[in-house]
Design goal:
single chain; about 250 residues; alpha+beta; NADH Oxidase; four-stranded antiparallel sheet; 4 strands; globular; binds flavin mononucleotide
């Protein structure tokens, strides 16, 4: 196994950060790696907002549901779906942009932002930094949009808290590999048994790290997925002109 793959496989989310600042040049190097990722039609429908201002981070931590690690991390990145720049390209050519009105557009923009966050994570971890992604930026999306001054045709997809890790961290086990890698066609056989096995593994893991109240994977996940936990996303998308009706 090469060093890069070893590093990727060692990932764990970090929610305890030291006060050590992160150099601007390091953040730029990491984000240049992110920008090198492939993207749909080379439309480059994404942007990243780098936030170091303590008050802004504190406000985001609140908007994200009092996630204190956003406050504690020296840097917070927001990955933005961005069809504002492509709209400028359309205007330059006297063409009316329509893609932002479609679910396809939202999938393209969020997928590209996700790829870039993936590269950011790998690059940051390779430099000894710790990260935790934050979907909580979509908890109060309209307030996030106002706070970051996001123009029409843009949307905050996810955040990433970045800093040097403090204390020990645990690596969370994943579902059995066979539930993830399917040969040729989707394989339903064996999924229930694999989930059963993983639930037991997660129970042991959660007891070991002192969070038995989370139950296991199926309990934890289904408890969350019985609700639409960020109900304001759709209306905030529409306000940003992502009508998602085509
Ligand atoms: C898109 C995305 C959004 C996430 N949002 C949050 C969040 O708001 N708060 C948080 O503490 N962790 C968040 N996480 C971290 C996940 O909980 C974590 O990746 C998952 O439990 C697996 O644990 P691991 O990263 O330590 O392997 C998010 C992860 C992703 C990929």
């Amino acid at each position: 196994m090469n060093e890069l793959i070893k590093g990727i496989k060692d990932h764990r989310s970090i929610r305890n950060f030291s006060d050590t600042p992160v150099e601007d040049s390091l953040i730029d190097e990491i984000l240049q790696a992110a920008q090198a990722m492939p993207n749909s039609i080379n439309g480059q429908q994404s942007s990243v907002i780098v936030i170091k201002n303590k008050e802004t981070k504190r406000e985001i931590a609140k908007l994200a549901g009092n996630q204190t690690w956003i406050d504690d991390a020296p840097v917070f990145l927001v990955f933005v779906m961005d069809f504002y720049k492509t709209d400028l390209a359309a205007k330059k050519n006297q063409i009316q942009q329509a893609i932002h009105e479609s679910i396809e557009g939202t999938m393209v923009g969020t997928f590209d932002a996700g790829l870039q966050m993936g590269a950011t994570i790998i690059a940051a971890e390779s430099m000894g930094l710790g990260i935790v992604p934050i979907g909580g930026v979509r908890r109060n999306p309209q307030e996030m949009i106002t706070l970051l001054n996001l123009p029409e045709y843009t949307f905050p997809v996810a955040g990433l808290a970045v800093g040097y890790p403090k204390g020990e961290s645990h690596q969370k086990p994943r579902l059995p590999f066979e539930t993830f890698r399917h040969f040729e066609t989707y394989q339903k056989d064996g999924l229930e048994a694999a989930i059963e096995e993983y639930d037991k593994q997660m129970e042991l893991y959660l007891a070991e790290i002192g969070r038995p109240q989370e139950g296991n994977w199926s309990k934890y996940t289904s408890n969350i997925y019985q609700y639409v936990y960020y109900p304001n996303v759709y209306s905030a998308l529409k306000d940003q002109k992502f009508s998602n009706d085509k």
